[in-house]
Design a protein that fits this description.
The chain is of the alpha/beta class. It contains 15 helices and 18 strands. It is elongated and about 100 Å long. The structure holds flavin mononucleotide, adenosine-5'-triphosphate and magnesium ion (MG).
């Protein structure tokens, strides 16, 4: 069997382990269910192409175990289902049918949506379990195991996910090692394929100086960004991300003057004990304002999973983006990542790419098979690599985890984050905030009412007051995105008093 041979003869130990595990799942499934009771959900995507060959190999090994085969298998007896859609790429459609013909797949084409199609199929056929090419990292993989019953509300069947633990790199290592055909779109920069309306080539593979030439999918360095070419479905929060322009939903310009909000969470008992002065929060506030974002809240919580989870849960739905720092590392008190996983209702799972980075840094100190620090929230995590950082930044949906412990480190992480976000069009940089400060000798009582009126006249500005000493002069601050509006507000205030009441404007 050519797949089994290609993997056994290659020198990629990791790929061999993944292959052995995946074909083992197939063999266990074929021992549990009869061949009529299983189906293979095939859609011509890269993951289902891997799965096709894993199933062919697993079936071969299953038969070999029963001593009923010793050579190549001509036909593939597992019923194959394809949900055909007019929104599919023609290349995907033709690859699916061509592949079916080459490998003798008995393909059932279903023209209904997934749920109704499965309901009809299960009524008609004795199917009890369906093989899927779902992988950790797919949004739909959250909470799934290799054997996972279908979700409540779906017809009852077992979802079989032999390649659940495969990374993007594993998929490409397999397809290239086995030299099997895959859909031509992957050679044109597509890295994950949905419908023609929500999928564009991955901009991270764009060849510089050319807006429509892309490198092949297997060259994507960070597999966590394989869905960067898939448009976000419109949701209540944008997550601060700009949907791909070509999807027609929106363009960067429409975001330009809109309001994006951030929250900042500091994790650390030491901050709350007053032993440690938190300089990172104010630094982030300044930086966020400089890109035109509004900071809704800056809070500090104890090093406790529930405290982190509660705060993250609150802030992630309130703000477009949440920045969290402190409590990241191997100590007993480093619970930030676990708290984030809890807030999203997902478990922590080993992340091999992250583990490699950590191994590089801590080397020999890393003992045992599994590095606890390499556990990241499952299915929601992206690693953002930058040449200047020894460890990638971690992004869990709209929560950015910063491992900086002082301002220079934070400065570096912020600069890298901005650079990465800008280059991948994942972050909206808005008009920066501008501000002016007016110093006055007026008392609080004198200025209170006119200022309240001014706030009503200029609802687009933040108008605040502070003083450097209880009995010193009062400073009125004006913050907004339009300098002329600020200047008008200052003039309007000055008109209400004698010119001598104002000491300085800057
Ligand atoms: C055979 C099959 C079984 C599925 N079973 C479930 C299920 O049990 N629960 C569920 O929420 N979605 C189920 N789905 C839907 C998928 O999770 C997912 O929405 C779909 O593959 C679209 O993925 P995409 O957004 O990455 O294109 C199933 C899909 C297929 C093809
Ligand atoms: N239209 C469909 N018909 C049959 N199965 C499908 C269909 N869409 C999705 N699936 C099943 O769900 C799995 C996961 O889909 P997903 O889009 O994440 O992966 P893929 O299409 O194989 O690869 P890619 O991530 O590159 O798009 C597929 O491997 C396949 O088993
Ligand atoms: Mg797909």
């Amino acid at each position: 069997m050519e797949i089994d041979k290609a993997i056994r003869e290659c020198d990629d130990r990791r790929l061999q382990t993944k292959y052995n595990n995946a074909t083992y799942v197939v063999q266990r499934a074929l021992a549990l269910y009869s061949i009529e009771e299983v189906a293979f959900s095939f859609n011509g995507g890269k993951d289902s192409t891997v799965l096709l060959h894993i199933l062919r190999a697993g079936y071969f090994l299953h038969k070999k175990g029963q001593n009923s085969v010793n050579g190549d298998l001509k036909d593939f007896p597992i019923r194959t289902i394809y949900f055909e859609s007019p929104c599919a790429f023609p290349e995907i459609n033709s690859f699916t049918y061509d592949t079916a013909a080459i490998y003798g797949l008995q393909i059932d084409t279903i023209s209904l949506d997934f749920k109704s199609g499965l309901e009809a199929l299960l009524k008609e056929k004795p199917i009890r379990a369906i093989f899927l090419g779902v992988r950790i990292g797919d949004p739909t993989a959250v909470g799934q195991e290799q054997f996972s019953p279908s979700s409540p509300g779906w017809p009852p069947f077992m979802r079989l996910n032999p390649i659940l633990d495969w990374s993007y790199r594993d998929v490409w290592a397999f397809l290239l090692t086995c030299k099997v055909n895959y859909c031509s779109l992957y050679d044109q920069g597509y890295t994950s394929i949905g419908s023609i309306y929500d999928t564009v080539p991955n901009s991270l593979l764009c060849i510089s100086n050319s807006s429509n030439k892309f490198k092949p999918a297997y060259l994507l360095a960070d597999g966590r960004l394989e869905r960067a070419g898939r448009a976000k479905r419109p949701s209540t929060s944008t997550g601060g991300q700009i949907p791909a322009e070509s999807n027609g939903l929106t363009s960067q310009d429409s975001y330009k003057n809109s309001m994006l909000t951030a929250s900042i969470i500091a994790v650390g008992d030491e901050i709350l004990f007053g032993n440690l002065e938190d300089l990172l929060g104010p630094y982030l506030c300044r930086k966020l304002h400089s890109i035109g974002w509004s900071v809704l809240q800056h809070s500090a919580v104890h090093n406790n999973i529930d405290s982190v989870a509660e705060e993250v849960e609150r802030q992630k739905s309130k703000s477009d983006m949440v920045f969290i720092y402190g409590g990241v590392g191997p100590l007993h008190s480093d619970v930030t990542i676990a708290g984030i996983a809890k807030a999203f209702g997902v478990r922590l799972a080993p992340d091999e790419e992250f583990e490699e980075y950590l191994r590089h840094i801590i080397g020999d100190q890393c003992t045992g098979d599994r590095n606890e620090m390499a556990q990241l929230p499952e299915g929601i995590t992206e690693l953002w690599h930058h040449d200047k950082l020894s460890v990638p930044l971690i992004k869990c949906e709209n929560v950015i985890i910063l491992s900086a412990t002082n301002v220079p480190e934070m400065e570096k992480q912020w600069d890298c984050w901005i650079e990465l976000a800008k280059s991948s069009d994942l972050l909206a940089l808005l008009e920066p905030y501008v501000s002016k400060h007016v110093t006055t000798s007026l008392s609080d009582v004198e200025i209170a009412q006119p200022l309240s009126k001014l706030c009503l006249e200029f609802p687009d500005l933040y108008i605040g007051c502070y003083r450097n000493a209880r009995y010193g002069s009062l400073i009125v601050s004006f913050k907004g995105k339009d300098l002329t509006r600020i200047e008008s507000a200052i003039k309007a205030l000055q008109k209400k008093f004698q010119p001598s009441a104002f000491i300085e404007t800057k």
